[in-house]
Amino acid sequence: MRRQPPEPLDLPGLLPDLLPIPQDDGPRPLAQIAYTDTYAEAMSYLRALMAANELSERTLKVTEYIIGINPAHYTCWGFRLRALFAVAKGGAQVESTDGSTTTSTLAQISEAQKSYELNWLQWEIEYLNRVAVQHEKNYQIWHHRQMVMDRVGELLAEQKDKVKEMIRSEHAFTAKMFDLDSKNYHVWSYRQWLVRRFKLFSDPSELSYIEELLSRDVRNNSAWNHRFFVIFGSAVRPTQEVVDREVDYTQNAIYLAPQNPSPWNYLRGILAQTGTPLSTLLSFCLTFAPISTTSSTNDVTSSHALDLLAEIYAEKAKLARNGEFQKEREENKKNAVRALELLAERYDPIRANYWDWRKREVLAV
Hints:
Oligomer: single chain
Shape: elongated
Strand content: under 5%
Order of helices and strands: HHEHHEHHHHHHHHHHHH
Structural class: mainly alpha
């Protein structure tokens, strides 16, 4: 969405009692930044507010104005968050010079106070919605949103239905952002935080949404990463049924796009998390990379299968070091070398030096 400049703000009229503090670059600045007069004036008033530790609605207006000019101003975002929490908890206040404030526990907050605070926080979320759509790659917005939503979660802790409604709303907005850019790192980080903060690891809607994204683009590595986090990121170990389901799902995705690295990496991750040997994938890999001497090199449809086969055969060769298994060891070494030579010479020559190094490691077994 095209960025909209902020509406003009009469700062002297809004802050008649404050003396603006201009930026002091010293008597002979070496590389002075050429700020616009509008931005320089706004920052002068922000410095005055910060010097007075004023956490008020006026501060919210000034920070919104500055963010409209420079949305990546993290100091401004930080001061805005402090002001927001202060105002939302019952009106303007001025912090002491040591930065301390009096914080009430949830038990001490009346329902009317909670409602008042929630209204302020909801208005802030609506503001963030507008800003986020204009500045998709701005990470300060998402950290700010995280802090706000964390407080909302505290206030609604005992109201499960409202928490679910809030989560649905957040899911809907992140989905809107993913429609703009399905691989937006900042939005994915926030979505991951939502899962962790509100314990959504077993929420069916989380997994179904990931599957929806992957059905649109099976190469969406961000969605694959999030799926792995949802399945394996909690303290609860997934059941064997879930693991088998994930293996089947991933293998089906590989059939759709054999050269897509994301599901291959996901498959490796499943085996690593469950302690399953790579060799269990041998027959599956051979489907995409038949490497017998009688097979045509044109039959290979995935370099990732070749890579995995090289690892599998190399590991099998290491396990067959006893003299009685000499023939088996040499056969496994030969297969591993063939896979690595195909990678170096035809399917991934840009990394030929790496594959050659792997080959030397295999031959040394």
